[in-house]
Give the backbone structure.
Amino acid sequence: MNLIDFASSPISLLPPVVALTLAIVTRRVLVSLGVGILLGAILLADYSIGGALSYTFEKVSGVFIEDGGINSWNMSIVGFLLLLGMMTALLTLSGGTRAFAEWAQVRVKSKRGSKLLAAFLGVFIFVDDYFNSLAVGSISRPVTDRFYVSRAKLAYILDSTAAPMCVLMPASSWGAYIMTIIGGILVSHGMTDYSALGAYVRLIPMNFYAVFALLMVFAVAWFKLDVGQMRRHEIEASQGRGFDEGNDSQAAHDLNEELDIEESSRGSVADLVMPIVSLIVATVAAMLYTGNQALASDGLAFNLLGAFENTDVGMSLIYGGVIGLAVALLTVLKQKLPASDIAKTLWIGAKSMFGAILILVFAWTIGSVIGDMNTGAYLSSLVQGNIDPSWLPVILFLLSGLMAFSTGTSWGTFGIMLPIAGDMAGATDLALMLPMLSAVLAGSVFGDHCSPISDTTILSSTGARCNHIDHVATQLPYAISVAIVSCIGFIALGMTSSVAISFAVASVAFVITCFVLASISKSKMASCPSA
């Protein structure tokens, strides 16, 4: 099928712009992406309905079938998401989250310790942002309540460890999703110097927002950096107010209520810890094993970096997911829970991932459509001679932030903006490919954090049983502060193309920001030292 070439036409902007506009207006990401796909298909087929339908079918089927066989990469990611959903549901059924909460209440001895507990759990439970927000909230809330930490502070900790940690870790639902998109971008631009995983690992120190959002959580927890409306909530909490569930207008539920799973009363701390540790260890081991096999087939000796560069990420995630699920299954079998309850829980867990899988399929498809429309090539033609390419990382950070804020979804923003950023880098300066991709990742998480319609933001307030608007308002000063630090980092990255220099510049900006927040907090909180 011959496709129309829109490389030099503003029409190439229509599919992503229409998809974005509809997402903002309707707040329905799947419908918006679907309309963008169909519009692109009609344009590429020169307004032939039959040709557009044929093109769309070809692109959607390409998600599942490649070169006459199963698309093993995409299907392994889908399989990992299903395994992850089932495993997290079993963690709830086993009673592991409840047991850990009871264990923590006995051992945490201070207000600072309760906040750090929530932060460390947010870092540890990184396999999925939904599970992170709900599980860590369920575990930490009884402990933080006992030391009069405000629900708004807990919601901030949940939200600022969930998405940032997930976007930094390859062995997470986010990591798997992002690697599939990045892998396609690298192949389309002939960048074979490193694999999708290798590129992902290189993006981590350039994802300034995620890195410094995590550091800000620990700074806020340790140094009591309470500014803006967070100060008022902490004062009220220190006076024993703000913990009445009846005052919360949001329909907040615990993790088990959210998933309609009844927790076992016989669970232990190991029932939570062991499956997660097994998932991580098994995934890393599988990555090393498959990477070593690839090296051996090329006649090369084993080395750690080479193994990770050549690993089969999809199958490694499947192996890790199977091991994690098996260990989680053992935790409920040893309690001799009814087989019907286990089967129901497995189905609920798999079903909880259906929405994410649908977004993934639509994102893969619209990414392919945007590539065929040459949207990035057209945008880059506007940039050339008008905007210095060194400014593109910070511009993409801000644009991605605006898109994620407007749509309330990081994943939808990844699906639209990553291919565009890749095409722009391919047409301007390939050396800026990774900085521009990292800017999209960072901006998407920033916008998602600030958006009141973000599912992660909503689940964080749910997990903390905090009024949703209170959470959004109290988190905003910290998110904006980290965004300013990130802008400085991306400007330095674009100007110098040095990860080390830009990270050092951003680190200095972060330290200065913390001092400013500490100064504000100290002057405002002097009247209430117990808060």
